[in-house]
């Protein structure tokens, strides 16, 4: 039990819920995460990070720069995740990025005491064609007509604590140089 508390203090609060992701033909993703049981909704969008070399992880592997938005406070946080699976996506954090460009590796590094954000998503329901378009019209109307595939499944986000980040940033700003 003490080990679980220590882990939570190190990585932050764990939010679990349901993710709904539209996989766009361009390689981008867009969607939302509903944190249960309070039904707090976060939005996110992601763009694929171009790879200048042959990836040794398989043809379905790609890196995504994912921006998570807190709709209530209008604040955002970027995190780099790996996406596996073609139409049925699995998202998780990148353990290492050896061989990628320095700017990509830099995005993975923690900066100035910011907490690392961990993201996990597994597709349980795949919607395509008419079912996907109906879902998009209902829940993501701005994406209607873009021929996206929809993934729905369990999602967790750990360490996304905008209030704690603000406190840490304020403390760092007040420290004499």
From TrEMBL:
**Protein name as annotated:** Tubulin glycylase
Q: Which organism is it from?
A: Heracleum sosnowskyi
